[in-house]
Predict the structure.
Amino acid sequence: QLQLVESGGGSVQAGGSLRLSCSASGSSIGIKVIHWHRQAPGKEREQVAIISGDGDDTYVADSVKGRFTISRDNAQNTVSLQMNSLKPEDSGVYYCGYLGRSWTWGQGTQVTVSS
């Protein structure tokens, strides 16, 4: 079964950048539609970005449009989320996942943006 592991989180100041990676193991990530969600304390889980299996179609939430870019390298079995111009409200735990028979998510990576 395809398993996902997120990495690349950390602490940055507002205006900074981070690049999150979602690495797959156990199976090929190819053809899977991959989602990035985030969860901040006291807030509802928010969908951030989605990418189609071939990478041709992407979606980013309005709250991050123009600042975040989702991409994938199926040969490397990874999906990336490039986050620029980070704001304090971008802080939270970021998860990548896919929908098979049920949702499968990684363990998450913490992003903290200070003002």
Remarks:
- The chain has a mean pLDDT of 96.
